[in-house]
Description:
This protein has helices at residues 4-7, 9-17, 25-33, 39-62, 68-72, 75-82, 92-95, 100-113, 124-143, 148-166, 168-171, 173-189, 191-195, 202-223, 232-240, 243-253. By secondary structure, it is mainly alpha-helical.
Amino acid sequence: MIQILLADSTEFYLKEKGLPDKEIVRDAWAKVTDTESEDVEVTKAVVALYSLSQEIQSLIKINEKLNHELYLASFKRLEQAFFPLNLGTNWQSPKQHLTEEALTRLQFCANELGRYYSEETLSEEELADIVAKTNELFEALISSSLPDALRLALLEEIERIRSAIHMYKIRGAKGLKEALQSTMGAVIANQEEIKSQSISNSDVIERLGVLIDKLDKFTTRALKLKRALANPIRFVLEKLTDDSDTTKSEDAES
């Protein structure tokens, strides 16, 4: 499974549909997506759902054996429910697009795509651990003595991971994998500058390696992929330390 719409679409939308008509759209979406009731945060979540509906349609269309018109006939209604405008209006407006027909067709899509896409769910304990490690790394970066430009680059990557965690219930492990790939790319792009800081900021490096390792283990398990790196922590340390130090470390382990 690649996201919540494929995993639990019926329960998800029935929960939406059951909200009171007079509920403010902003507050309704905040409850449904477990998001803070702020325009920016709610808009991000609704945009993610809207994008997700587009992705589901594309995946259905890839299968030439399916009757695309039959499966996707109600998606215009769903997109109208997701459209992130008029957050201050009543829930009654978007609710009218969540008809029984639309919900049923969505369930059919979830069932069909479930034949090809499956995803292991992140437990509450695992999610809490990733959140804790991400926050600890963020604080360590803030208080580090890294050059400002480098520190900002890494903080941007951690914020990207935070956003992926926040959107996990919508985008699943796919969003975490994309954030992980971006972070690994940033490490490679800045490896020489980070290497020069490897002694004075070793705590930051270790925390970065641990977080990358944690994310790589989960996303590869959840998406049933091969690990991006055989040993992400060693990869990070190799990029941030002298080759001679790495060689000594490997000799000692052997």
